[in-house]
Amino acid sequence: MALAGEHFGARRFTEATDICRAMPAADPNHAGAHHLLGGCALVRGHYAEAEGHLRRAADADPENGLILANLGSALVALAKPFEAVEVLERAVELRPEIAPAHNQLGQALFAVDRKDEAVATLERAVAADPNHTDARVNLALARHRLGRPDLGALDLHAFAKAEPENVTVWLALATLYRETAFAGRAVECLEKALAITPENRNLQMVHADTLSEAGAPDRALAILSTLADELPNAHQIHVRLAGCLGTLGRMEEADAAARRALELNPSSSGALFHLAHIHDLDPDGAEVAAMRRMADAGAGRRPMTMGLNFALGRTYDAAGRYDDAFRHFEVGNRLRQEQSAARNEAFDADAQAAYAEHVKGIFSKELFERTAGWGDPSPVPVFIADMPRSGTTLTEQIIASHPRAFGAGELLDVPHMARMLSYLIERPKPFPDLVADLTPKIVGLQGRAYLRRLADLSGGTERVTNKLPGNFAFLGLIALLFPNASIIHARRNAIDTALSCYVVSFAQGHTYSNDLRALGRYWRIYDSLMDHWREVLPRPMLELDYEAMVAEPEATTRRLLEHCGLEWDDACLDFHRHKRPVMTASKMQVRKPIYKSSVERWRNYEAHLGPLIEALGDRAPV
């Protein structure tokens, strides 16, 4: 055993394994041999094998805290958090000085939704070993995921300052910024990591993904093209190329990349997903048959199965097979509901309704009369407020086709500002309660920061759009910060809007969209808030109906440009020719001229929409 231990310490795992395998033959319950065999399997990433050996070691020596700590690590890696918690709680009781055991227990506690205990446990891990990188990183990320990304970022930046060559820390910072939708900052952190390990291919792919999220798919494409030349048989690179090229509107090349990925891996769900969104596939063809097989076989792989069901739904919808389409949309949404529940992110309609009423009470006519003259008078910001899938991308694409305008997409800056304002007032309060403590100085400071960001994004363009769907909840704050901003309320038939949300697999958030009844309730909350803003905002919004845009595109476009302070330009009618990157679910639609098939689309699914229509009540346009 001593020799096997020496080999293990020197990372000669094959030699250690060979010695240990001989020992259970003579003594099947040899705890030390199974412990070392489990340890070797663990460091090699063979987690199921590690669990088997470590359970036998723990059976033979149940009071050995180190064995239990390693067994807990294997269980965490195998996504068995409840079992891991039980094992690791005993491990740290026996060996409280083992920082990795506290670290693994913290991760397991977080996974079983005991988040406050997880943070306390990770704090004990750092106290046991202040130099334990994983523990410090996991503690910062846990604080971020508990709603304090500012604390998480402070911890990680302090760590990065002390250890600027630590790649793990820069990756953790990038993760935090990606999860809070600050993709630009995530890119900066990844570039720090790449400066340390420039040949790391996985890191290069993450860099490309993040550049796409940050609105720089052209830079992402350059990286992916180089990787494809260097690793021509790596199908995941070609899958990413297909997505990136689709974002750039280069559909023929996107198709070729997706098909190349399928040549390399006929079971590539990502490639099939992209093909289904590039083309209207033959529902009886080989590609759709492959998607069906993979969706049926992938019950234990929720993200893959979820995406395939949405892709199948889109395919059958395009073919006019609406009952088949709805069946797949229903499965995809059920899987998304399960995912949201597992992440403790389920939609709470009652809480949302109460919050909306609270917002209305704060942002009154009297507030705007008292704060008249506050904010930055710049006309640069343009905010598109609405439900998702109600014509926001089309509206932005029309404006962005103007030579004096720039489409910035779905910027999360306004909700972030709403949160960060809490730290600028004397006594921190949540939004919207903090509004009572704002001052002209604080409001001006935040307004100027946002304008600088728009200038960086657009190169100083005269009008810059922000089409984040959630903007409608923050129009009071927007009017306070930017009294001369153009606000556009993009409206669409309530049932069409809700159905369009239901049939799209959003990348993240929008948990209300996975249940028809919840969608109806959410739409009513949104509509009631828009009624309120219509009454109290000092500068009127432009009410832009999707149906009017489809029926009278030129007249509606003229009204839109006039509201934004832009003169007429013919390019705005040819918006589909504009080659700007489009990051949202409508990226394929805005590559085409205006079409009428989306108006009253819900009639195709009327037999399935009873819960939605009932929840909409008197707001349902039937």
Radius of gyration: 27 Å
Helix-strand category: mainly alpha
DSSP summary: helix tally: 31
Largest sheet, in brief, is:
5 strands, parallel
- What coarse outline follows from CA principal-axis ratios? globular
Strand content: under 5%
Distance between the termini: 78 Å
Identify the CATH homologous superfamily of the domain at 365-619.
P-loop containing nucleotide triphosphate hydrolases
* Number of beta strands: 5
Specify the CATH class of the domain at 365-619: Alpha Beta
Strand order of the largest sheet: 2-3-1-4-5
CATH architecture of the domain at 365-619, by name, is 3-Layer(aba) Sandwich
Please give the share of residues in helix: 55-70%
Report mean pLDDT, rounded to a whole number: 88
CATH topology name of the domain at 365-619, in short, is Rossmann fold
How does this structure look, described?
With 622 residues, the chain is mainly alpha-helical. The protein has a domain at 365-619: P-loop containing nucleotide triphosphate hydrolases (Rossmann fold, 3-Layer(aba) Sandwich), CATH 3.40.50.300. Helices cover 63% and strands 4% of the residues. It has 31 helices and 5 strands. It has helices spanning 2-9, 13-26, 31-44, 47-60, 65-77, 81-94, 99-111, 115-128, 133-145, 149-162, 167-179, 183-196, 201-213, 217-230, 235-247, 251-264, 269-278, 286-297, 302-318, 322-342, 349-362, 365-370, 392-400, 413-420, 440-458, 475-481, 494-502, 516-536, 546-551, 553-563, 610-616; strands at residues 381-385, 405-407, 463-466, 486-491, 542-545. The protein has a 5-stranded parallel sheet, sandwiched between helices. The N and C termini lie far apart (78 Å).
